[in-house]
Write a structure and sequence with these properties.
- By secondary structure, this protein is mainly alpha-helical.
- The protein contains 4 helices and 2 strands; from the N terminus they run E-E-H-H-H-H.
- It has a two-stranded antiparallel ribbon.
- Strand 1 and strand 2 form a beta hairpin.
- It is elongated.
Length: 97
């Protein structure tokens, strides 16, 4: 399956890069940037990042995941707001005349 259309990176390419990096150094922290570099490509628009990260998470040899790859906690998945305080919009504030 094609994960990144801009650079034509497939899920197989991502897994192969992770396997290669893990074989070269078992302690390395594998990031999306390192995978792009290992494949000789550069990220373009970033639209693929959610699928790219999910593909990385699904790889058995990923090892210790950096914070960006760790699974989200259940408390944050169900949040209906972005963590901003109530009344952060100018239109919600009362204006003193």
């Amino acid at each position: 399956m094609i994960v990144c259309h801009c650079t034509m990176i497939s899920d197989h390419d991502i897994r192969a890069a992770i396997d290669w990096m893990r074989a070269a150094d078992a302690q390395t922290i594998i990031t999306p940037g390192k995978i792009y570099h290992a494949l000789g490509k550069r990220a373009d628009c970033g639209g693929c990042m959610p699928l790219f990260l999910d593909t990385m998470r699904a790889c058995d040899k990923l090892g210790v995941a950096p914070p960006i790859l760790r699974a989200r906690t259940d408390s944050k998945k169900d949040a209906t707001h972005e963590g901003r305080r109530q009344g952060h919009r100018v239109s919600q504030r009362r204006t003193a005349l």
